[in-house]
Design a protein that fits this description.
The complex is a heterodimer. Chain A is mostly beta strands. In chain A, 0% of the residues lie in helices and 50% in strands. Chain A is built from no helices and eleven strands. In chain A, strands 2, 4, 5, 6, 9, 10 and 11 form a seven-stranded mixed sheet that branches. A four-stranded antiparallel sheet of chain A has the order 1-3-8-7, with no helix packed on it. Chain B is mostly beta strands. Chain B contains no helices and twelve strands. In chain B, the strands form three sheets. In chain B, strands 2, 5, 6, 10, 11 and 12 form a six-stranded mixed sheet that branches. In chain B, a hairpin with a 6-residue loop joins strand 10 and strand 11. Chain B is globular, with a radius of gyration of 13 Å. The model of chain B has no long low-confidence stretch (mean pLDDT 90). Classes of the chains: A mainly beta, B mainly beta. Chains A and B meet through strand 4, strand 5, strand 9 and strand 10 of A and strand 5, strand 6, strand 10 and strand 11 of B.
Chain lengths: 115, 113
Amino acid sequence: EPEVTQTPSHQVTQMGQEVILRCVPISNHLYFYWYRQILGQKVEFLVSFYNNEISEKSEIFDDQFSVERPDGSNFTLKIRSTKLEDSAMYFCASSEQGAGNYGYTFGSGTRLTVV
Amino acid sequence: AQSVSQHNHHVILSEAASLELGCNYSYGGTVNLFWYVQYPGQHLQLLLKYFSGDPLVKGIKGFEAEFIKSKFSFNLRKPSVQWSDTAEYFCAVKGGSQGNLIFGKGTKLSVKP
């Protein structure tokens, strides 16, 4: 069964540093997403991406965040200057269609710890 | 704005007990409804989904959910839980033209052997 692959599985970074979280979506999927889950809290939508541009973003996704699909396979989330409150599990997801009758396939997540 | 409420934060059951996890959503239009499960240390996995048609949806591992439009509910059920069902369960809604899922806070299920 096709999978969404995320690397690394766990990243520890110092406050103020830049981090890049990587995702390889399922190859024939067209819509890509990032979600995060702060420990003990609900899964929150960050951003959706389609046709090489952001289609929607939440208020969490401020100027410190950016996404990119640099080479047609990877889908990255960059946090420019990490804060303690960015510590969370970050999930990448992809779907064949954004608004159609499809569920999302999620990756295993990257646990980001900001110290 | 859309929202999803899951009523139970933590449910503890013995094996073979029946399970029902509540989920209510707020959205006035057509919705797609999902239940995801997250086993300890693993990623979110789709249990079942509802788009249209029969409001009683059957998913993997013996789970089912019933969409009751008048109650804005999509409760998850399983007649007899197993220890391996210990996980966190998330209800999610996708409504209107938006492409993103809105998740509930999740319900942690602990099944005692």
